[in-house]
């Protein structure tokens, strides 16, 4: 790293020639008109601008570069420097002080503007405190109007009018020939302008032409991980940079790919195709109408690839451990991405089918998106080994322990590689229970506090109720199936109304919202659920056309003792259903550690 202070004039030349460009991960960003005027005022006063930061390329760059907005750089120009911090300042100054086009900016409301920037000479040679007012921006036609454009306030549409008004066009400040021509025209207007120009030159022009820009230059050998970290720290006001954007720029700059295929690699397009195919069959992985990053994200996909790649490297003796940290993603070569991406796409499709078998079919009902990452990696590594009876059983047990034990809610980067290695060994019979299985505990008291979809265990019990054979209370022909969940608008429905519980069983009011008092039912069934169960069950039975005892059997498929509903005995209902739900959880987790602290009779 080195610290330099190049002249602003030289930096803007580099922008124009393409010697200074942006890495392609930099987002487009426009400063508003007021901020640009303040920036220009700062330069004309020779006040500190703030440090900018660049990355030396050494004649080659790992990123696809692009010119700063407005610079006409020949295609294929390789920059000497990539601008990491200072894009808005350099872009604004380049467009305002060097380019013969209006500056592309926005107003205070974000509306696009195209403006020319001038400096009022008379105000500029006054006190420095008035410098902000001396910087003037005018529309593209160089005419400033008011009263809904009916009255002209300032007309600078010709050089003669500029000189007469004493407004110097700032895009001439570094063009000596054109600036001198403007000067000659200015003094023709009035001989007194010789002295005015002299003061203007001393107090303004000389400041701009000699202005230094403090610049930190990172060496070309700086790692991508460091570049990413530095970029995020110095761009605290913008949207955080993610690994996918950095890899997009890196892959696009891969010259070997360009040489072989004649064009740069477009990572976003590849990801869009993969995600579209996955979600078209398995909506649980996201909704494309909500954006390509909805549900399964690009980072999830990259992490799964990194897990498989580092597993292969460890197997081949090239690495000592599995990992999917930021560094591993940033070091993912394009060749490895293109080799592994199809395998992981197939693996995530298998994951989608697995979730469907667990009766989890919508993204809103997915307990943990992150848990899919190691699962897909395991599938990509083992392939059809996961389809054996023992393989599917152990994957299911691992999955439900992760969900019901709420193991994927905190720091997960260290759990990912551990789960992949342990789950592979477990499936192959070469190891004991994975940590996720061994450590998972479902304390029975947790049922009382599972009240919203914010909890993975809440979503998990909802799915398990469907999976174990719950039959809808209106569509009673067969147990709910994954396809019916969407078709019939199935959702979690309240069994005993909160208001009724608060009135009839005030001691249990806090448990009214618990998953114990909820069950998966269709929208059509919910329309008939008015009042307590003793009031709505008979109409539902009549609508179903079933005999009373048969309808009771349907109610019982939800792990409910029907008599507790007819009798309106919420306390007995809650205690009985809690026991049945604990048995359901125990079965899914395959563990004997479900217990209730305050009642040994529920111990398992």
Would you give an account of this structure?
This protein is α+β, with helices and mostly antiparallel strands. The chain contains 28 helices and 14 strands. A hairpin with a 5-residue loop joins strand 6 (103-106) and strand 7 (112-120). It is elongated.
What layout of secondary structure does this protein have?
Layout: E1 2-4, H1 8-17, E2 20-23, H2 33-44, E3 52-56, E4 65-66, E5 81-85, H3 87-97, E6 103-106, E7 112-120, H4 121-124, H5 131-134, E8 135-139, E9 143-146, E10 151-155, H6 159-165, E11 167-169, H7 176-189, H8 193-209, E12 215-218, H9 224-234, H10 243-252, H11 255-261, H12 267-281, H13 298-315, H14 326-330, H15 334-357, H16 372-382, H17 389-404, H18 415-427, H19 435-439, H20 446-449, H21 456-467, H22 482-487, E13 491-494, H23 498-504, E14 518-521, H24 523-527, H25 533-544, H26 548-556, H27 562-566, H28 570-589
Parallel strand pairs: 2-5, 3-12
Antiparallel strand pairs: 1-12, 2-4, 3-5, 6-7, 7-8, 7-11, 9-10, 13-14
Helix pairs in contact: 6-7, 12-15, 13-15, 13-16, 15-16, 16-18
Short description:
A hairpin with a 5-residue loop joins strand 6 and strand 7 (112-120). The chain has a six-stranded mixed sheet. It is elongated.
